[in-house]
Design a protein that fits this description.
The protein is an alpha/beta fold. It contains 6 helices and 7 strands, in the order H-E-E-H-E-E-E-H-H-E-H-E-H. The chain has a single domain, classed as Lysozyme-like (3-Layer(aba) Sandwich), CATH 3.40.80.
Length: 197
Protein backbone atom coordinates (compact mmCIF):
# COMPACT_ATOMS: atom_id res chain seq x y z
CA UNK A 1 0.00 0.00 0.00
CA UNK A 2 1.33 3.35 -1.01
CA UNK A 3 2.28 5.76 1.74
CA UNK A 4 0.36 8.96 2.37
CA UNK A 5 3.39 10.95 1.13
CA UNK A 6 3.17 9.23 -2.27
CA UNK A 7 -0.58 9.89 -2.51
CA UNK A 8 -0.06 13.56 -1.64
CA UNK A 9 2.72 13.84 -4.24
CA UNK A 10 0.56 12.22 -6.96
CA UNK A 11 -2.40 14.42 -6.05
CA UNK A 12 -0.19 17.53 -6.20
CA UNK A 13 1.15 16.38 -9.59
CA UNK A 14 -2.38 15.86 -10.99
CA UNK A 15 -3.50 19.28 -9.72
CA UNK A 16 -0.35 20.93 -11.19
CA UNK A 17 -0.92 19.29 -14.57
CA UNK A 18 -4.56 20.35 -14.60
CA UNK A 19 -3.68 23.95 -13.70
CA UNK A 20 -0.86 24.00 -16.28
CA UNK A 21 -3.20 22.71 -18.98
CA UNK A 22 -5.80 25.35 -18.08
CA UNK A 23 -3.13 28.06 -18.20
CA UNK A 24 -1.93 26.92 -21.64
CA UNK A 25 -5.48 26.83 -22.98
CA UNK A 26 -6.14 30.31 -21.61
CA UNK A 27 -2.90 31.68 -23.18
CA UNK A 28 -3.49 30.03 -26.57
CA UNK A 29 -3.49 32.47 -29.47
CA UNK A 30 -5.00 32.13 -32.88
CA UNK A 31 -2.69 30.49 -35.40
CA UNK A 32 -0.62 32.84 -37.53
CA UNK A 33 -2.27 33.59 -40.83
CA UNK A 34 -0.61 34.87 -43.98
CA UNK A 35 -1.42 38.44 -44.91
CA UNK A 36 -4.35 38.43 -47.26
CA UNK A 37 -3.38 39.52 -50.74
CA UNK A 38 -4.62 42.93 -51.73
CA UNK A 39 -7.18 43.06 -54.50
CA UNK A 40 -5.43 43.63 -57.79
CA UNK A 41 -6.60 46.30 -60.17
CA UNK A 42 -5.92 46.35 -63.87
CA UNK A 43 -5.54 49.13 -66.31
CA UNK A 44 -6.02 47.91 -69.82
CA UNK A 45 -7.02 49.79 -72.91
CA UNK A 46 -9.80 52.07 -71.75
CA UNK A 47 -10.68 50.04 -68.64
CA UNK A 48 -10.16 50.36 -64.94
CA UNK A 49 -11.16 48.22 -62.02
CA UNK A 50 -10.66 44.79 -63.61
CA UNK A 51 -8.37 42.32 -61.80
CA UNK A 52 -4.71 42.95 -62.54
CA UNK A 53 -4.10 39.29 -63.26
CA UNK A 54 -0.90 40.24 -65.04
CA UNK A 55 0.87 40.55 -61.65
CA UNK A 56 -0.50 37.29 -60.28
CA UNK A 57 -0.11 35.33 -63.51
CA UNK A 58 3.25 33.62 -63.27
CA UNK A 59 4.38 30.22 -64.47
CA UNK A 60 6.39 29.63 -61.30
CA UNK A 61 5.90 30.55 -57.66
CA UNK A 62 7.02 34.09 -56.75
CA UNK A 63 10.10 33.70 -54.51
CA UNK A 64 9.56 35.19 -51.06
CA UNK A 65 11.56 38.37 -50.50
CA UNK A 66 13.11 38.42 -53.99
CA UNK A 67 11.68 41.69 -55.29
CA UNK A 68 13.00 44.72 -53.39
CA UNK A 69 13.01 47.53 -56.00
CA UNK A 70 11.11 48.81 -59.03
CA UNK A 71 12.96 50.57 -61.86
CA UNK A 72 10.96 52.55 -64.46
CA UNK A 73 12.20 52.99 -68.04
CA UNK A 74 10.84 54.47 -71.24
CA UNK A 75 11.33 52.95 -74.69
CA UNK A 76 13.38 55.91 -75.91
CA UNK A 77 13.55 57.32 -79.37
CA UNK A 78 14.24 53.91 -80.93
CA UNK A 79 11.00 52.53 -79.48
CA UNK A 80 12.81 49.64 -77.83
CA UNK A 81 10.18 47.68 -75.96
CA UNK A 82 12.56 46.24 -73.38
CA UNK A 83 10.50 43.05 -73.67
CA UNK A 84 13.60 40.98 -73.12
CA UNK A 85 15.04 42.91 -70.20
CA UNK A 86 12.05 44.27 -68.25
CA UNK A 87 9.32 42.41 -66.40
CA UNK A 88 6.38 44.61 -67.46
CA UNK A 89 5.64 46.78 -70.48
CA UNK A 90 3.02 49.56 -70.63
CA UNK A 91 1.57 49.67 -74.15
CA UNK A 92 0.98 52.58 -76.49
CA UNK A 93 -1.77 53.19 -79.05
CA UNK A 94 0.63 51.96 -81.74
CA UNK A 95 1.36 48.67 -79.97
CA UNK A 96 -1.01 46.50 -77.91
CA UNK A 97 -3.17 49.28 -76.44
CA UNK A 98 -2.66 52.67 -74.87
CA UNK A 99 -2.04 51.98 -71.19
CA UNK A 100 -2.41 48.21 -71.45
CA UNK A 101 -0.07 46.32 -69.13
CA UNK A 102 1.78 43.25 -70.34
CA UNK A 103 4.01 40.92 -68.34
CA UNK A 104 7.04 39.62 -70.18
CA UNK A 105 8.48 36.11 -70.02
CA UNK A 106 10.90 37.38 -67.36
CA UNK A 107 8.00 38.09 -64.99
CA UNK A 108 6.10 34.93 -65.81
CA UNK A 109 9.25 32.90 -65.12
CA UNK A 110 10.34 35.08 -62.17
CA UNK A 111 13.71 35.58 -63.84
CA UNK A 112 16.22 38.27 -62.97
CA UNK A 113 15.89 41.39 -65.06
CA UNK A 114 18.26 42.57 -67.75
CA UNK A 115 17.33 46.21 -67.76
CA UNK A 116 19.92 48.09 -65.72
CA UNK A 117 23.61 48.20 -64.94
CA UNK A 118 24.77 49.95 -61.78
CA UNK A 119 28.39 49.44 -60.73
CA UNK A 120 28.63 47.89 -57.28
CA UNK A 121 25.06 46.54 -57.02
CA UNK A 122 23.18 43.94 -59.06
CA UNK A 123 19.81 45.66 -59.40
CA UNK A 124 18.80 43.07 -62.01
CA UNK A 125 18.70 40.38 -59.32
CA UNK A 126 16.04 42.04 -57.14
CA UNK A 127 14.47 44.83 -59.20
CA UNK A 128 11.26 44.68 -61.20
CA UNK A 129 11.81 46.47 -64.52
CA UNK A 130 8.85 48.37 -65.98
CA UNK A 131 9.06 49.95 -69.46
CA UNK A 132 6.62 52.55 -70.77
CA UNK A 133 6.41 52.40 -74.58
CA UNK A 134 6.99 56.11 -75.09
CA UNK A 135 9.87 58.43 -75.88
CA UNK A 136 9.67 60.83 -72.95
CA UNK A 137 12.52 62.88 -74.46
CA UNK A 138 10.15 64.27 -77.05
CA UNK A 139 6.69 63.92 -75.46
CA UNK A 140 5.16 62.86 -72.18
CA UNK A 141 3.57 59.41 -71.87
CA UNK A 142 -0.19 59.48 -72.47
CA UNK A 143 -2.52 59.87 -69.48
CA UNK A 144 -3.50 56.21 -69.93
CA UNK A 145 0.13 55.10 -69.80
CA UNK A 146 0.82 57.24 -66.74
CA UNK A 147 -2.28 55.93 -64.93
CA UNK A 148 -1.39 52.33 -65.81
CA UNK A 149 2.21 52.79 -64.67
CA UNK A 150 1.14 54.34 -61.36
CA UNK A 151 -1.43 51.63 -60.70
CA UNK A 152 0.99 48.82 -61.59
CA UNK A 153 3.80 50.22 -59.44
CA UNK A 154 1.44 50.80 -56.51
CA UNK A 155 0.29 47.19 -56.76
CA UNK A 156 3.87 45.94 -56.90
CA UNK A 157 4.70 48.07 -53.85
CA UNK A 158 1.78 46.61 -51.91
CA UNK A 159 2.31 43.02 -53.04
CA UNK A 160 6.03 42.97 -52.29
CA UNK A 161 6.27 45.65 -49.57
CA UNK A 162 8.46 47.94 -51.65
CA UNK A 163 8.82 51.38 -50.04
CA UNK A 164 8.71 54.53 -52.19
CA UNK A 165 12.44 55.05 -51.59
CA UNK A 166 13.03 51.79 -53.51
CA UNK A 167 11.05 52.87 -56.59
CA UNK A 168 13.48 54.43 -59.06
CA UNK A 169 13.44 56.03 -62.44
CA UNK A 170 16.33 54.66 -64.48
CA UNK A 171 17.70 58.21 -64.48
CA UNK A 172 17.93 58.07 -60.65
CA UNK A 173 20.49 55.29 -61.09
CA UNK A 174 22.69 56.87 -63.75
CA UNK A 175 20.89 56.86 -67.12
CA UNK A 176 20.30 60.59 -67.77
CA UNK A 177 17.68 60.22 -70.52
CA UNK A 178 15.64 57.25 -69.30
CA UNK A 179 12.91 58.11 -68.88
CA UNK A 180 13.29 61.34 -70.78
CA UNK A 181 12.76 64.84 -69.42
CA UNK A 182 9.07 64.96 -70.36
CA UNK A 183 8.27 62.06 -68.06
CA UNK A 184 5.99 63.35 -65.24
CA UNK A 185 8.39 62.34 -62.47
CA UNK A 186 6.91 64.49 -59.69
CA UNK A 187 3.33 63.38 -60.33
CA UNK A 188 4.45 59.75 -60.57
CA UNK A 189 6.32 59.92 -57.27
CA UNK A 190 3.37 61.65 -55.59
CA UNK A 191 1.18 58.68 -56.54
CA UNK A 192 3.38 56.03 -54.89
CA UNK A 193 2.19 54.10 -51.85
CA UNK A 194 3.47 55.71 -48.66
CA UNK A 195 4.06 53.67 -45.50
CA UNK A 196 1.24 54.05 -42.97
CA UNK A 197 2.20 55.76 -39.72
Amino acid sequence: MAGSGTIKTLAALVVSLALGTCALIWMETAPARPIAPLPLQAVGEGETGAPLAVVESTDVRVPSGKWRHVVVHDAGRDGVAADDGCHFVIGSAATFGDGAIRATARWRNQSDGRHIVVPGYDFNADSIGVCVLADARSSAPTPQQTAALTQLVRQLQQSFRIPPASVYLHSDLGAPDCPGGRFPAEAFRAGLVRPSR
